[in-house]
């Protein structure tokens, strides 16, 4: 054994013991007659005292991040450091073994008072990820990831869910993103696809008679990276239940998710039942289908109030209004900068505004076009600022949503240290695809339409709502699910409206289509994004920091140099040539 204690374990209770420790050199301080070495592992730091000339000589050429095994005697420190777990003791070394040398120069600082991880180029940190992971901040986030996964499993076990693994080598299917394709060696010209989600498999498990399934599932989508989305691969808490309705899924989620967040964070966590917001209402009030409820600002529609306006920029437009309580105290520079944001970041043609002064009079901006009647109708009060967005409906909603978010950030309006959840429900089943000039699924093609087959046959497609739902936390979509369309006839009709023939359905979803002919229970499910959940719980801005070995912003693994070229022989094995 290289150690019988870890570096965060010793206390005054161990004084006079002879112990073995092993870890990385955090810092070396030479004080002439003796050396002090801070020895670190993931549990903490222990100060090592080296006074023997023989041992000091052995330490020549030893640099920070070298791995040492130390044997020595525990003594009480005269100058205690109560900020450290082991700050009341030190170990006087009697034996030192160098287990792993480190170069004299590191690519970047790892753990020191001087360190600023954000000042180091991210690609450099990712190239030497094994060094970056030694940093306490990011190391602890990966440990937290493990703890959260344990919490999830404990909560799912309490609710009698069965953990089942589904295949990684699957078939290609149109699920909203590009597939990662894997050529087959044994079946020339045929391809596997890495699953975008275990969607079909978990539904087939319900057909198989399993009551409640879950897994922490790897998913693969060839998507562009974002700060809150890992490129290529991600993990989700995937679950499905037989004989279940939307209410059943909500009930389970509202037990599991708050419990996991509470166990792993000291922030306040919303209890179920969570607020439910229909999709249409979310777009009207927040301009987005993943509203951050920590932000108190609400978007109002004022279109009818400006039907007879003389302000040309508002004529014939949808008018959205955001009232900022107390916003009138902001100077002209603030309003101008918000206008710049709306134009440069939200795609607006401009951002109109007025102030309501302390005497309840309108001033600044477009005040000459705003009547007291309009001010009263929208509920503006003395000291408020009012922002106006004018455009066609969807664009106005989007711009207003982005302006609302930015106002919340700049004015520090967001409620602190709290996780606020809400359900977004009643998503439209279909949307019009402008590029393809056709009706398309707006969300999940496997969802049950509200009203079933009758709605598909009689209602206008764009008026049909689906039993689809998203769980939102602090402005992030953290989960998505649906009641599944388990009826073959309804399934065929749903895909027909989106331009797929029955033959297309048989080819793309053959297993599901066939299985549904043999007695399928109603079923429903949801999937929570694990990486995003950990990002929120650890209050991390970048999702890459909660993944041990992430891809960079260009979906490359710069440490392993992936993706990389392969040999001609490997290509021949899978019957391929590079075009």
CATH superfamily of the largest domain: Bira Bifunctional Protein, Domain 2
Largest sheet: 8 strands, mixed
CATH architecture grouping of the largest domain:
2-Layer Sandwich
Strand content: 25-35%
Helix content: 25-40%
How many domains, as an integer?
A: 3
How many helices? The count is 16
Mean pLDDT: 94
Features:
single chain; 579 residues; alpha+beta; OB fold (Dihydrolipoamide Acetyltransferase, E2P); 3 domains
Give the secondary structure arrangement, pairings included.
Layout lengths: L17 E13 L4 E7 L2 E7 L2 H6 L8 E10 L12 E12 L21 H6 L1 H4 L3 H23 L3 E2 L16 E4 L7 E4 L4 H9 L4 E10 L10 E11 L3 H19 L3 E2 L5 E4 H8 L12 E3 L16 E7 L7 H15 L5 E5 L5 E2 L8 H7 L6 E7 L1 H18 L7 E2 L1 E5 L4 E4 L4 E4 L10 H7 L9 E6 L2 E8 L4 H10 L4 H7 L1 H6 L7 E7 H8 L30 H6 L6
Parallel strand pairs: 3-5, 6-9, 11-18, 12-19
Antiparallel strand pairs: 1-2, 1-4, 2-3, 4-5, 7-8, 9-10, 10-24, 13-14, 14-17, 15-16, 15-17, 19-22, 20-21, 22-23, 23-24
Task: Report on this structure.
Helix content is 27%, strand content 25%. With 579 residues, the protein is α+β, with helices and mostly antiparallel strands. It has three domains: 12-100, OB fold (Dihydrolipoamide Acetyltransferase, E2P), CATH 2.40.50.140; 139-276 and 422-547, Bira Bifunctional Protein, Domain 2 (BirA Bifunctional Protein, domain 2, 2-Layer Sandwich), CATH 3.30.930; 295-414, Gyrase A, domain 2 (2-Layer Sandwich), CATH 3.30.1360. The strands form six sheets. Strands 6-9-10-24-23-22-19-12 form an eight-stranded mixed β-sheet, with helices on both faces. It has a five-stranded mixed beta barrel with strand order 1-2-3-5-4. Helix 4 packs across helix 6, helix 8 (332-346) packs across helix 10 and helix 11 (452-458) packs parallel to helix 12. The model has no long low-confidence stretch (mean pLDDT 94).
């Amino acid at each position: 054994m290289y150690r019988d204690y870890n570096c965060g374990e010793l206390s005054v209770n161990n004084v006079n013991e002879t112990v073995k420790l092993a870890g990385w050199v955090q810092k070396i301080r030479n004080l002439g007659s003796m050396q002090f070495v801070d020895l670190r592992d993931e549990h903490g730091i222990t100060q090592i005292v080296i006074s023997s000339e023989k041992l000091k000589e052995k330490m020549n050429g030893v640099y920070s991040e070298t791995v040492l095994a130390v044997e020595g005697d525990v003594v009480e420190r005269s100058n205690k450091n109560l900020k450290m777990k082991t700050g009341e003791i030190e170990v006087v070394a009697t034996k030192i073994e160098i287990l792993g040398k480190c170069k004299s120069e590191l690519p970047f600082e790892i753990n020191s008072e001087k360190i600023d991880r954000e000042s180091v180029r991210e690609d450099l940190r990712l190239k030497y990820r094994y060094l970056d992971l030694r940093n306490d901040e990011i190391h602890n986030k990966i440990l937290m990831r493990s703890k959260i996964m344990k919490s999830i499993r404990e909560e799912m076990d309490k609710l009698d869910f069965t953990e089942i693994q589904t295949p990684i080598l699957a078939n290609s299917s149109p699920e909203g993103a590009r597939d990662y394709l894997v050529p087959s060696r044994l079946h020339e010209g045929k391809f596997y696809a890495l699953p975008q989600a275990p969607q079909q498999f978990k539904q087939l498990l319900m057909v198989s008679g399993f009551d409640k399934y879950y897994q922490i599932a790897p998913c693969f989508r060839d998507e562009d990276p974002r700060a809150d989305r890992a490129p290529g691969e991600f993990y989700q808490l995937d679950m499905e239940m037989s004989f279940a309705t939307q209410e059943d899924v909500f009930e389970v989620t509202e037990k599991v998710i708050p419990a996991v967040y509470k166990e792993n964070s000291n922030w306040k966590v919303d209890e179920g039942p969570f607020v439910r917001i229909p999709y249409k209402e979310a777009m009207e009030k927040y301009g987005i289908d993943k509203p951050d409820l920590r932000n108190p600002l609400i978007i109002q529609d004022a279109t009818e109030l400006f039907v007879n306006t003389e302000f040309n920029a508002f004529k014939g437009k949808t008018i959205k209004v955001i009232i900022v309580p107390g916003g009138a105290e902001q100077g002209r520079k603030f309003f101008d900068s918000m206008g710049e944001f709306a134009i440069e970041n939200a795609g607006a043609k401009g951002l109109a505004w007025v102030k309501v002064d302390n005497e309840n009079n309108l001033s600044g901006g477009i005040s000459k076009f705003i009547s007291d009647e309009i001010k009263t109708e929208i509920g503006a009060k003395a000291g408020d600022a009012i922002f106006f967005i004018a455009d066609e409906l969807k664009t106005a909603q989007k711009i207003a949503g982005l302006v609302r978010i930015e106002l919340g950030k700049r004015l520090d309006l967001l409620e602190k240290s709290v996780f606020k959840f809400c359900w977004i429900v009643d998503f439209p089943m279909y949307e019009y695809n402008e590029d393809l000039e056709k009706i398309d699924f707006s969300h999940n093609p496997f969802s049950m339409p509200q009203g079933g087959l009758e709605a598909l046959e009689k209602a206008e497609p764009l008026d049909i709502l689906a039993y689809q739902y998203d769980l939102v936390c602090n402005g992030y979509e953290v989960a998505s699910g649906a009641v599944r369309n388990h009826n073959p006839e309804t399934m065929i009709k749903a895909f027909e409206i989106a331009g797929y023939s029955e033959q297309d359905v048989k080819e793309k979803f053959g297993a599901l289509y066939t299985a549904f002919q043999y007695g399928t229970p109603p079923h429903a499910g949801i999937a929570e994004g694990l990486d995003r959940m950990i990002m929120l719980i650890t209050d991390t801005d970048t999702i890459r920091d909660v993944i041990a070995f992430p891809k960079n912003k260009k979906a490359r693994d710069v440490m392993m140099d992936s993706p990389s070229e392969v040999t001609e022989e490997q290509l021949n094995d899978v019957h391929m040539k590079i075009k």
